[in-house]
Amino acid sequence: MAATNLIGLDIGSMSVRAVETSRGKEGLGILNYAQTPLPAGAVVSGVIRDAEAVTAALKELWTTTKFRSRHVSLGITNPQAVVREMSVAKLPKNQLKKSLPFQVRDMLPLAVERALLDFYPLEEPSGDTIRGLLIAAPKEAVLMAVQAVERAGLHVERVDLATFALLRSTAWLDSAVEAIVDIGAQASSVVVHADGEPLIVRTVPRGGQELTEVLASRLGIGVTEAEAVKCWVGLRREEGPEVADILREALRPLISEIRSSFTYLSSSERPTQVQRLSLAGGGSLLPGLAETLANELHVPAVIADPMSRLRALDRGQHDNLERFRSSAAVSIGLTLGAA
Question: pTM score, two decimals?
Answer without folding.
Answer: 0.86
